[in-house]
Amino acid sequence: MSLGMYGLERTESGNEAVSLKGAAVRHDGFALGPLDLTVPAGMVTAIVGPNGSGKSTLLRLLLRLAPCEGEAAVLGQRLSPDSDEGLRERIGFVSELPHAYENHLTADEKARFASKWYPGWSWERYERLMRSFDADRVKKLGKMSKGMRRKAELAVAMAHDPELLLLDEPSSGLDPSAWKALLDELTRYMDRGDRTLIFATHITEEVRRLADYVLFMHRGRCLGLYEKDRLFEAWRVLAVQRTDGAAGKEDAARLLKQAPGVQGAQEAGPGICRIESDAPEETEAYCLSNGYRILSSQRMELEEIMACLVRKGDAGR
Ligand SMILES: Nc1ncnc2c1ncn2[C@@H]1O[C@H](COP(=O)(O)OP(=O)(O)OP(=O)(O)O)[C@@H](O)[C@H]1O
């Protein structure tokens, strides 16, 4: 298991927001899973991955909106096809795409429906959120711009202070001021300490600012769940060069792929290799004792780490 990776075996029972064992969803031409995964409670987990990797499908699985094989539990309740035992009331959700059947409602009308459905509903909280997002209360949802509608839907989804908040690309369409308000409100939501946020995103800055954990998805599979701070701290790209000037270029990258911590290695010039490592100290020690000098060592961005994991995932298929 990679450094900083959070696995099923490291979770204390009862401390997880989501637990999946062999959970799978099958569409025409797409399979999510089977996934074995636990997502910790009381934390923020960002789901990242290329378009079509299954982020929305995973959120839909957790909401029982997609029929699921295997075992899945949310907030300690096993998901079953026939009963949700009040689970929906404990969750807030904003989907990636709005529901057309709500187009004729204003935000306040949608809120009125939600207030009857959710025991934890607070009009005070709803109004504060609407003010904070500067959301429109009068316009029909169907006549709103994408960002306007998103702000209203976020306010409705958060007004019952759900134990678990599932957001699918929450900042899609938001202007910079609304985006900042959203980050502030999500931070405030988490401040209580017993709330869990899971969100899908393509925005690196959101991951940096909000997430405790990062879940990488690709082609319906989970490439790993990592503690964010350790992920950014640990992963590095190294440039190394053979000290003896030996050629054997292809061999160098191939051999270095076997070195400790190495997640990827490519030729980058005569006798020079570019190595991606999640245990750079061990990788460096190996390189130094095997005829290489270290030219540089740099932290990796989220996109670079994801590209490396995706390449590795594709190679292992
Ligand atoms: N209702 C559906 N019926 C059939 N296929 C679907 C359905 N919903 C999603 N898919 C397919 O499932 C795959 C995963 O889609 P999903 O929306 O989960 O990806 P995503 O990671 O959220 O993508 P994006 O970043 O573009 O939002 C895609 O190939 C998509 O075409």
Oligomer: single chain
Derived from helix and strand composition plus strand pairing, the structural class reads alpha/beta
- What is the CATH architecture annotation of the largest domain? 3-Layer(aba) Sandwich
Count up the domains.
Answer: 2
User: What does the radius of gyration come to?
Assistant: 22 Å
Quickly count the helices.
10
Keywords: ATP-binding, Nucleotide-binding, Transport
Protein name: ABC transporter ATP-binding protein
Organism: Cohnella hashimotonis
GO molecular function: ATP binding
Give a summary of the structure in a few sentences.
Helices cover 33% and strands 29% of the residues. The chain has 317 residues and is α/β, with parallel strands linked by helices.
Explain what you see:
The chain is α/β, with parallel strands linked by helices. The chain folds into two domains: 8-231, P-loop containing nucleotide triphosphate hydrolases (Rossmann fold); 236-299, Alpha-Beta Plaits (2-Layer Sandwich), CATH 3.30.70. Helix content is 33%, strand content 29%. It contains ten helices and 14 strands. It has a six-stranded mixed sheet with strand order 6-7-8-3-9-10, sandwiched between helices. Strand 9 and strand 10 (221-227) form a beta hairpin. Helix 2 runs parallel beside helix 4 and helix 3 (123-133) runs antiparallel to helix 4 (146-158). The two termini are 18 Å apart. Residues 6-12 have low confidence and may be disordered. Adenosine-5'-triphosphate binds at residues 27-28, 30, 49, 51-57, 96, 200. Residues 9-244 form the ABC transporter domain. One of its GO terms (molecular function) is ATP binding. This is ABC transporter ATP-binding protein.
